[in-house]
Amino acid sequence: MVKKSFRTRPTYNTAEALTPIVRLWILRILHPLGGYKEWVQNHGFRCDELASALGLQAWLDEGERPFDARAVRLELRQRYSAAEKQRHRAHPHATMRSNTQRLARFWRLPVPFTKSRCWSWRRIIWVICLLPA
Q1: CA-derived radius of gyration, the chain
Q2: What average pLDDT does the structure give for the chain?
Q3: Which of 27, 33, 95, 112 is the most buried (most CB within 10 A)?
């Protein structure tokens, strides 16, 4: 049987690191929400650019080591755990915080947001702001 490969040529610029909050959200989608089930295939990743962005480049080059889906899932779980432990450092950019406050005023939500007040609304607005148009 011929192995099928879903590999694509990585085009992600690794010099452009993901911000900690974006990395955390991506890892939350992939690990606890089960997105890895579609993304990690038996013989490679569904999207190599995402693997590169998350620092999994070693799995992209078959010459370096053979692809092992189980080991990739384990490494992904470890990266997710590390990101969750550092979540207190994951803050959106100042422009996004400012825009979030403006949206909150527009929607007549209590401003300023605090940890005890409307924390969930702030997160929801951040996600909405990051969604592509």
Answers
A1: 18
A2: 78
A3: 27
